[in-house]
Amino acid sequence: GLMTLEELQQQVLKGRGKFAQDVSADDLVRAIKKLKVLGSGFGLIPVGGTVLVQSVPAELSMDHSVVLQLAEKKGFVTVSEIRESLGWETERAKQVLDHLLKEGMAWLDAQAPAEPQFWLPALFSELHGQEGT
Fold it and tell me: Are residues 46 and 32 in contact, defined by beta-carbon separation less than 8 angstroms?
């Protein structure tokens, strides 16, 4: 449902082969904006210094975007972190996280040491960078 623009560019280049014309991040941004005319399936979500590409028809509110920004550094977030950082009530944090889970944009680690962690695979960029080494 979500991936970084950089990862999308790498996947497109990988799928096209080494003799195909290069595809820039700007090319992808323009293509996604044109696809948006067809419906809410594709979109761009700026999250801190990263741009995420949304490829599922789910509506994301400002609450969702703020939680994505909070999770950007570690790749996951907890209800306690949301409550402490954003000053939200527990129920509000759980509603946002439940929506991300339902849409397949987050994974739940219920066995985390202190409390459940909600991982956002689209933000695993540091892990993707280590795969090639």
Answer: no
